[in-house]
Amino acid sequence: MLPEARALDLAGPLADYAARGYARLGRVMTDAGLAALRARSDDLMLGRVTYPGLFFQHDAASGRYEDLPYGKGYEGPSTSYRKLEKLEKDPLFLAWIENPLFERIARSLIQGEISIYRAVLFNKAASGGTPLPWHQDGGSYWGLDRDPELQIWTALDDAPADGGCVEVLEGSHLGGLATPLGG
Questions:
Q1: Which CA distances in Å does 10 have to 7, 26, 70, 101, 176?
Q2: Which co-factors does it depend on (predicted)?
Q3: Beta-bridge partner residues of 120
Q4: To which H or E segment does residue 58 belong?
Q5: For site-directed labelling of 18, which of 10, 80, 123, 173 has its Cα 20 to 30 A away?
Q6: How far apart are CA 16 and CA 4, in angstroms?
Q7: What is the pTM (predicted TM-score) of this model?
Q8: What are phi and psi of 106, to 5 degrees?
Q9: Rounded to a whole number, what is the distance in angstroms from the first to the last CA of the chain?
């Protein structure tokens, strides 16, 4: 973590988060940290580092979300996986997830015990990817006893807007879920 990130003043980002539904922290990871997590991402996808129970999902060959393969898991070395989950099993990713800045943010917003639901790598292969339809990460779709209160996203690579990166609908959190199902 960059030294200045450890003492980052959270007043502005927390106010933005409350008003807009998201906040930009700016760069908080060192070049070495980024390189390590990029390399570990490749190592996981290529099977050079393995952990029981990791979740893997390839993009749909058709490029259509409706055609995504489910339940196949690891299908051999490939940097074309669209999603890896349970990254908290990996010590490098876990160390980043548990960093002091993220803990300060979480404790500023969440009272009582804090747990992680998903530690996910979203990957877009150079050959393209599957567009993800608009959705909300909450609701009965997820089968949780409560909706997630906070998501923290770290970009390991540049994510230009025209590259199909995540889009956020500013302020949409203020109206709650569009449907009870969420998803």
A1: 9, 12, 39, 9, 24
A2: Fe(2+)
A3: 85
A4: strand 55-58
A5: 123
A6: 20
A7: 0.91
A8: -60, -45
A9: 32
